[in-house]
Design a protein that fits this description.
The chain contains 6 helices and 13 strands. The protein is of the alpha+beta class.
């Protein structure tokens, strides 16, 4: 029997870390546990909740994601947690006891559509968590590890798909009108989820920053937050606390890309509904500029918004 090994992977949220296994841990669906009582079908999650800093446990495909309380830093405990999980799994114990219960009434899946500031993008919100991280697919080739996004690309009018927590932001081509296609897309998404279809596989790669301090771009190494200069750290924290929640409510995301201390220019990357929307770009750029100038005084002259 092949030994299970874990790889520690940071995420765009400094409170959440992923432990990726070299084999699949679940088959049927993704699981999220907020406390030990919710983890009745996961002895592994129950064991992890005995660690006082564990806030939430995600188990999906080939990875386990853990959200921590702020009483510790991941760099101080992540190796011990990985060893504990590996030891448990290599005893032949399941991460989740997956059973198909045909006699239990399922909670109905609901999905509602919500307009965004970008007229080309509609936000579809589900009544359950769909993904633990941010994923973005520009075409069907990129959606290989997302059965839901790949299926959506079979509609000729769908241009891009963006996933975050409990919603999808879908970008359409101009050939179609939302009045004609919104109901069809909403029903398709609802059916896919209700029938147990996967949203993403365990091999899907998040497009968000691998750590909070650096947007992930081809050929650019990620910089841990603690290794950024003081001003960059302040900018990241302001974006996380004040800007991201509002952007997410509109079906988008914003990531810190860089800070030029000489010219005092901040670059950010817009994703989802915010990407490619002139009004969103203008509003966000000026809104972020105003906030950063106010909170950081003479350290920021300009914010440049880039489309992801």
């Amino acid at each position: 029997m092949e030994k299970i090994t874990l790889k520690i992977e940071p995420t765009n949220n400094p409170s959440i870390i992923k432990f990726e296994a070299n084999k699949f841990l679940t088959e049927q669906q993704s699981y999220e546990y907020k406390n030990i009582d919710e983890a009745g079908n996961s002895p592994l999650a129950q064991q992890l909740f005995y660690l006082p800093f564990v806030k939430t446990v995600f188990i999906s495909g080939n990875f386990i994601g853990i959200e921590r309380y702020n009483i510790v830093e991941w760099k101080d405990v992540q190796e011990e947690v990985a060893e504990q999980i590996e030891a448990y799994l290599n005893q032949g114990q399941p991460a989740v006891v997956e059973t198909i219960k045909t006699d239990v009434k399922k909670v109905p899946i609901t999905v509602y559509a919500e307009s965004t500031p970008n007229p080309a993008v509609m936000k579809f919100v589900a009544n359950k968590i769909l993904v633990p991280e941010i994923f973005e697919f520009k075409n069907i080739d990129e959606a290989t590890e997302s059965p839901l996004a790949k299926a959506l690309f079979n509609f000729p009018f769908i241009k891009e798909v963006f996933l975050d927590e409990n919603y999808l932001s879908v970008t359409k081509y101009d050939v179609a009108d939302w009045n004609d296609i919104t109901m069809e897309i909403r029903e398709f998404i609802t059916s896919h989820i209700a029938q147990g279809g996967k949203v993403v596989t365990g091999n899907a790669k998040s497009v968000a920053a691998p750590v909070a301090g650096q947007a992930k771009q081809p050929g650019v190494s990620a910089i841990p937050l603690e290794e950024l200069d003081e001003t960059s750290q302040q900018i990241v924290n302001i974006l996380e606390e004040y800007i991201k929640p509002a952007v997410a409510s509109d079906g988008g995301n914003i990531m810190f890309e860089s800070y030029d201390s000489e010219n005092k220019i901040v670059k950010v990357i817009l994703q989802g509904a915010c990407s490619g929307c002139p009004s969103s770009t203008f509003t966000l750029k000026n809104g972020i500029e105003t906030m950063l100038k106010s909170m950081l005084q003479d350290k920021v002259n300009e914010v440049v918004a880039l489309n992801g």
